[in-house]
Amino acid sequence: MSHKLTRRGFILASAPAILPALGANDRLKVGWIGTGTRGNYVMARMYDAVPELVEVTAVCDTYQGNLAKGKDQVQTRGGNTPKTFVDYRDLLKEPVDVVFITTPEHLHHEMAMAALAAGKNIYLEKPLAHTIEEGFDIVRAAEKSGKVVQVGTQNRSNSLYIMAKELVDQGMIGDIHYVRAYWYRNSTSDNPAWRYAIPADTNEQNTDWNRFLGPAPKRPFDKRRYFQWRLYWDYSGGISTDLLVHQTDIANFVCSQQVPFSCMASGGIYRWTGPNDDRDVPDTFSAIYEYPDKFHINYSCYFGNDHFGYGEDYLGNEGTIQVLNRQTLHFYPETFRGKPPANVAARKELHIDIPGNDNYAVQAHVKNFIEAVLGKAKVVAPPSVGQQAAISGHLATLSYRNNKKIYWDEKTNKYRFS
Ligand SMILES: NC(=O)c1ccc[n+]([C@@H]2O[C@H](COP(=O)([O-])OP(=O)(O)OC[C@H]3O[C@@H](n4cnc5c(N)ncnc54)[C@H](O)[C@@H]3O)[C@@H](O)[C@H]2O)c1
User: Fold this and answer.
1) Ligand 1 contact, 260 CB (< 6 A)
2) Burial of 403: CB neighbours in 10 Å, binned 0-12, 13-18, 19+
3) 185 lines ligand 1 (CB under 6 A)
4) How far apart, in whole angstroms, are the C-alpha atoms of residue 262 and residue 247?
């Protein structure tokens, strides 16, 4: 089944048979690098979406527990036993057509560059890379290689954002100069944000610390850094590159924008200040973006209150579109003192809810990638687009860490602070 959206709502439709059925030997051979939380989740969505088109023949992870989970899933869902690897360079020597890279942010660059050099097509989780410069390296290498690369910003394959874009393009909310985007979370005090569980069996023998560090500064084995890497600058941009990039990316898509020319970010560690909490990245974060043609994004994220959840509000001068939790869309025509102006009076409110729609988006995103590798489609999130989203994230981190407004020069592809 696929979800087909119309102006009046969505209908369920049988998926058209776009591709001829492939025989077992014609399936794309898949290698998987990083079978942690996201890796196993995306793999499950791949088996949901295109089981007949793929065969995972190799999996790689530096923690034995997650390597075993990845292998188990292949056996259960794919019905075959993949080869297992601890060093991704060994996996890249395998005759696989595509690799999924679902490892921590700081490893994306070296893994993507090596995969392209080995002639592989790549599904690369967001953010594209850990720095702006690394991102441009990947963009250039991907273009030169002619290989298919899909960045894991799956909102671009989400039926509700596609509909939001259609509504904006049709002029349903008039001119749009302002987007408000937010991601709010909370948890109980004994469960600090991003302090994900560390498996009880973890030790230096079953966790390859040096391979995890990769290009990051050397330091002694530290389970918290390994399993909670999002909290440390060496491996992550925190909120900016973990969460915000999804939302600037989709605001760019819905509003046909690309890269801001300035960003001013601020925040701090206000909520998760436990005595033993050595996190680097803020849990309270705001960023203001200006784009070249009178377009503004107001971004807000806080890990101490969940009430308003996740969403983007597209504030047009003739109406508002709101996408919440990636699964609910509202359209409200603009009114003045309770009455719509004559030119918008015919536009009716719209409310759509598709529970679990992010799962469908990931399936569609993976399917788009596989079909692109088979020459039947174009990827919706190539590296150039992933880089636009990543630039927003990195500008926010740089502004926050330098306590300065930052400017982006799209002619030179460089930032400056004044
Ligand atoms: N698109 C989305 O909505 C979304 C959601 C969550 C995470 N992500 C992205 O997915 C990626 C992974 O995040 P996660 O939450 O799964 O992290 P995770 O820590 O759960 O998983 C990372 C895995 O990589 C493995 N690993 C570390 N170093 C390795 C190396 N050198 N070689 C092979 N494997 C290695 C770890 O052992 C672990 O199993 C990140 O880029 C993250 O931003 C995207």
Assistant:
1) no
2) exposed
3) no
4) 17
Amino acid found at 163: M
pTM: 0.94
Give the DSSP letter of residue 196.
Answer: P
pLDDT in tens, 351-407: 999 999 999 999 999 999 999 999 999 999 999 999 999 999 999 999 999 999 999
Two structure tokens written together for 117 = 């050099």
10 within 8 A of 354, measured Cβ to Cβ: yes
Residue 125 Cβ < 6 Å to ligand 1: yes
Structure tokens at 74: 């292949």
Give the domains, in start order, of the chain with CATH numbers.
2-155 (3.40.50.720), 167-360+383-416 (3.30.360.10)
Q: Which of 38, 71, 161, 397 to mutate to test the pocket of ligand 1 (most atoms within 8 A of CB)?
A: 38
Q: 43, 62, 103: which to mutate for ligand 1, most atoms within 8 A of CB?
A: 103
